[in-house]
Amino acid sequence: MEFITVKELREKTKAVLQKVRSGKQIIVTYRGKPIAIVSPFKTEDLDKKQLRPFEEAWADIEATLDKTSPQFLDWKEAIKHSRRK
Asked: Which of 22, 32, 78, 83 could join 72 via S-S bond, C-beta 3.0 to 4.6 A?
């Protein structure tokens, strides 16, 4: 595996992605410590929940919100609270 710095990734993104496209994995470091791995994308690695129609995802978000209760009665109360901090 090849190591590159964040700076190198920023400056040579196209070249790095070409290497990844050819099958190589690249470890990105920041101040000498590994922080990420850039590797080829495989469709089978995706969780099916990540790829779903917008309408289905939005319905899940709304269902989750319906199960919760607001912390503040209205937006004015929320702003007052945020300004006190």
From this structure: 78
Phi-psi region of 31 (alpha: psi -120 to 50; beta: other; left: phi over 0): left
Q: Which amino acid is at 45?
A: D
Domain 2-41 superfamily per CATH: YefM-like domain (3.40.1620.10)
Q: Domain spans of the chain?
A: 2-41, 44-84
Q: Which residue, chain included where needed, has tokens 């917008």?
A: 54
Both tokens of 32, joined, read: 């000498």
Distance CA(64)–CA(44), nearest Å, equals 28
Q: What is the pLDDT along the chain (85 residues), one digit of tens a residue?
A: 899 999 999 999 999 999 999 999 999 999 999 999 999 988 777 776 577 888 998 999 999 999 998 899 999 999 999 998 6
